C-alpha cells in the first residue's frame, strides 16, 4: 500500500463536464407532467409539487404566501394537528415555500410509506378548508412578526431596495405594509387558490429511489382528478423605467448598525452575459475570500460579513450588495464598496485570483450535483426557464475561458457607479 505524503498537495484537476442524471418525463392520466430523476442507494424519495403560484401572480401583497401557508392548516377531513401527526408517524418531512415565481410543496419520505404520506398530501392540495379561525390566527401572527421585523434595519433596507428597483406597481416590488395585513381577506386567498393551485398548473418532480411504483402511486392519487382545460391566465408586465431614487436613507433612531443594500436590475439567466456577471460578482463579494470580505471585514473591521450576488427571476433579474456595518462607519464602508467596484473597472484581475475564483466556482457547481435530490434542484432551476442541463456545461466553459480583459469590459458595462441604487437603513 502506498502511503500518502501529506506534505504534498494533491494533484489539481479541473472539472471538464458534468454528467447529469437525466430526468424521465411522463404524464399522469389527466395530463399532469411528472419528471423523475432516479438515483442514490437509499430507500428515500423527494417529491416536489411545483405550481405557477408565486408572488408574481398575486394582485395584492401577501396573497401568494398566505395561500401557500394555509394549505396545511386544515382540510375537509383533517385539522392541522392531524396532518402534522399523520405525516410524522411515517418519519416523513413536509415543507412548503413561495418565491417570486413559483410555489411548492415538498415531501421527503421512505419509498415504502409513499402511499400513506400521499393520502395527506392529496388532502392538502385538493381539499384545503381555509378555516376562518386558522386564517385569523395566521394573520395575527403575521402582523406580530411584521412589527418585529420593522425594528430590524436589514428588513427595512431589503424591502425598500426591492421597491426602488422594481417600483411598487411591478409585482416583484409590491412590498407589504401593515395595512395590507389588516386588509388580507380569506375570499382573496380562496380565489387565488382556485386560480393557481389547480393541478393543471402543477408539475411534479420526483427524485431518489424512483421507480414505476412511484408513478403508479402518484397517478392513483392525482391522475384521475378533474383538472381545468383552459389555460391559467398568467400576467405579463414590463418594468416601467421611471426615474428612481438612487440614494435612499431610512432613518432608524438609536440603531447601532446600518443595513446597506446597493444594486441594480441585471439580465437573468436567459441572457448571454449572465455567466460572466456571475463570475464578476463572485470576485467582488461571492465567497469568503472575496474582495469585499477582505477589505470591509478583514482589513477595516467594519462588519462581520458582506456579500453580493446575482438573482435570476423569470421576468427580471438583479444584482445586490448586502451588509450591516457599525453606524459610525457607514460612510466609510460605502466609500470602500465603491472603491472595490471601480477597481474591477480599471485593473485586471490577477491570474492567481482569477484561477482561485474559477476553482471555487467549479468546485461549488460540482458540489451542487451531489445526489439525486440536488440534481432535481438543478433540473428545476433551468427547466422552468425553458432551459436544459446544457446551461451548466455552458457555464463551465465560460468559467474556464473567461479572461481578465472580459471582466473589465463587463464591469464597465454593468457596474457603472452612477447606475446603482443605494439604500441605507440606520441612524443618521
By CATH's scheme, which homologous superfamily of the largest domain applies? Metalloenzyme, LuxS/M16 peptidase-like
Shape: globular
| CATH class descriptor of the largest domain | Alpha Beta
Rg, Cα atoms, Å: 24 Å
Helix count, DSSP H or I runs of 4 or more residues: 15
Chain-wise SSE layout:
Blueprint (H helix, E strand, L loop, with lengths): L23 E4 L5 E6 L5 E8 L11 H8 L9 H9 L4 E6 L4 E8 L3 H13 L5 H18 L3 H14 L11 H6 L2 H11 L5 E7 L3 H11 L24 E5 L5 E9 L8 H12 L5 H9 L6 E8 L2 E11 L3 H17 L4 H17 L4 H12 L6 H12 L2 H11 L6 E6 L2
Parallel strand pairs: 2-6, 7-11
Antiparallel strand pairs: 1-2, 3-5, 3-6, 4-5, 8-10, 8-11, 9-10
Précis, in short:
This protein has 428 residues and is of the alpha+beta class.
Textual characterization of the structure:
The chain is an alpha+beta fold and 428 residues long. It has two domains: 24-223, Cytochrome Bc1 Complex, Chain A, domain 1 (2-Layer Sandwich); 246-426, Cytochrome Bc1 Complex, Chain A, domain 1. Helix content is 42%, strand content 18%. The chain contains 15 helices and eleven strands. It has helices at 63-70, 80-88, 114-126, 132-149, 153-166, 178-183, 186-196, 212-222, 274-285, 291-299, 330-346, 351-367, 372-383, 390-401, 404-414, and strands at residues 24-27, 33-38, 44-51, 93-98, 103-110, 202-208, 247-251, 257-265, 306-313, 316-326, 421-426. The strands form two sheets. Strands 1-2-6-3-5-4 form a six-stranded mixed beta sheet, with helices on both faces. A five-stranded mixed beta sheet has the order 7-11-8-10-9, with helices on both faces. A hairpin with a 5-residue loop joins strand 1 (24-27) and strand 2 (33-38). The mean pLDDT is 93.
